[in-house]
């Protein structure tokens, strides 16, 4: 799984992942973004439960669902399509709607994302949303 982080033209962090893991980048961009509190909670939970196969954690966001276990991480897009409504002769392209990886790899991505976001914030390169 290859990935890179950059700052978009709007000043927000942006993650790009290799084919087969694109949804992980979309999840980082759209659901996690610059929420360092949520990011820290995820990292703490993973560290406390690593290698406990019976452990599971779910996080449903606006667009994506995260499912963690003691060994794996899965992200799926909640795209709202009703597969029953799609005619039989058409196939739904969902290659960018689901990705999975090992929990250790997912944790490494989160650590890298946190370092990137913190560095960009310290440089003033990322504009955080204003509190409401």
Automatic annotation (TrEMBL):
Protein origin, superkingdom: Bacteria
Pfam families the UniProt entry points to: UPF0231
InterPro entries, per database record: UPF0231
UniProt similarity note: Belongs to the UPF0231 family.
The protein's name in its UniProt record: Uncharacterized protein
Species whose genome carries this gene: Pelagibaculum spongiae
């Amino acid at each position: 799984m290859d990935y890179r982080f950059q700052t978009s033209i709007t000043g927000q962090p942006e993650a790009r992942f290799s084919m087969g893991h694109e949804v992980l980048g979309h999840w980082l961009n759209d659901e996690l973004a610059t929420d360092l509190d949520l990011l820290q909670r995820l990292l703490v939970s993973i560290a406390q439960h690593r290698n406990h196969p019976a452990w599971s954690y779910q996080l449903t966001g606006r667009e994506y669902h995260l499912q963690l276990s003691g060994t794996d991480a899965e992200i799926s897009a909640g795209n709202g399509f009703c597969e029953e409504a799609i005619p039989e002769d058409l196939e739904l392209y969902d290659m960018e709607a689901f990705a999975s990886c090992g929990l250790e790899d997912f944790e490494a991505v989160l650590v890298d994302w946190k370092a990137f976001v913190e560095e960009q914030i310290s440089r003033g390169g990322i504009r955080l949303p204003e509190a409401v």
